[in-house]
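Predict the 3D structure for this chain.
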Amino acid sequence: MRARKKKNCDARLERCSDYIIDKIVVPPENDKPVFLEIGCGKGRFAVETAEKESCLFFAVEIMKDIIVMAIEKGAKRGLDNIKYKIGSADDILEFCPENCVDTLFLNFCDPWPKKRNAKRRLTYRAYLEKYKKILKKDGIIAFKTDNYPLFTFSVEEFKESGFEIYDYTENLHESGIYNVAMTEYEERFSQMGQPIYHLKARMKN
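Done. Predicted structure below.
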């Protein structure tokens, strides 16, 4: 996804600096589930989930000109349970502690459709091995996409990496499965009649 350069991006980020972190830190007294979204985009899902759920929400996005809009959403609503990290899934073990996350959200990530780019997909097994380290023992990955080839690829990657799949559906909005919030892409695709593919995955006991 190519983002247009945002006017005064650095100044806008500075105004919201209280919401930006270098590393994920969970207070020892925390008793709320820890949610992490990789690739939060413009931030609708993160903000709406943080509003609805009693949780600590950490939203990660690599593109500064996109995450600035997400951060401004959180700041405008005065949320005290959400923080943002400008960064990449490649570096997740550097900024996220092990055994930390209750739910990891992967929403509408880049499908990288060419076969030679499979290793760049956020559900590729090398990424899944990293996620295992940051998830708590009973932690889960929640995955949504509009791209069926990516979905079928991901199902096999989860299985090969030792995950158990549940809440599997090829039409989330008709399934009755709880959908805490939509992303901007999800709303747009759904209005066009595009089914949303969804699953959750947890490590097998």
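The chain has one domain: 30-203.
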